[in-house]
Description:
The protein starts with a helix and ends with a strand. The chain has six helices and 16 strands. It has one domain (2-267): 4-Layer Sandwich (Purple Acid Phosphatase, chain A, domain 2). Helix content is 23%, strand content 29%. The strands form four sheets. The protein has a six-stranded mixed sheet, covered by helices on one side. The chain has a six-stranded mixed sheet with strand order 6-7-8-9-15-14. The chain is an alpha/beta fold. It has helices at 2-22, 60-69, 89-101, 111-115, 119-128, 163-166; strands at 25-33, 41-47, 73-77, 105-108, 132-133, 137-143, 146-152, 175-179, 196-199, 208-209, 213-214, 216-217, 221-222, 229-234, 237-241, 259-267.
Amino acid sequence: MFLYAGLIVAVAGSFKVFYDTNIFKVNHIKIKSEKITNRSSFTILQLTDVHNKTFGKDNKPLIDKIKRLNPDIIVITGDLIDRKTTDFTAMFDLVEQLQSMNEQIFFVSGNHEWGNEKTLEFFTGLAERNIHILDNTNRTINFNENRIQLVGVADYATEHDDLTSAMLDIHDETYTILLSHVPDITNDLVNESIDLILSGHTHGGQIRAPFIGALVAPEQGYFPQLDKGMYQWKDEQYLYIDSGLGTTWMPIRFLNQSQMTMITIEGKR
Length: 269
């Protein structure tokens, strides 16, 4: 009896690991702001922590889903590759397909990009494919008589970030989004007028336990407080951590399905 029950648990657990690791979902979040007028809306698709993983032949399921979502812009918040990646073909093919459907693709670096021996080659390849590398700089995006300021910092964990340069000429009255691979960037934010931070890095713990959540996350150690999801870190200022699409250190996920996130920002007035 116990052997039979154990077998059922093992099979169910194995299926869950396979499903969470290889079948992605889309998380949808909606944010309202007084800084957006005319009840306009703006959509952002966030991809993070892919770690050179592919979903099906030529990433077809992923690409088909993104086409249907049809976001206004796409942001990639680091660790598109793994530090051990030597062949960038799969990720270059992915960004080429993304760029063919949406020219507004913005990338900030993660710790695995900086830990890779071919960092410069990878960054050059992204630039050649017209991906906007937003490390320590910013862009203004206009839509429906509104503006959004998109600010990017290079990886905080490896000390490549330069927040001062990134925030140059940023205006408080305009809705501002900060792209930072590592959520711990909040430790250095004092009076910056940032409305939303989009991060990754934690993988949501990658393996989670029932009723507990993430067991460990980079920089935060065991039982991290900031593992995935939406956090209000100041009044009307939010941090969102996407748990990502790929894996590292162990090629599995459990109770933590691979995902990307569709963010809709709407005007309150």
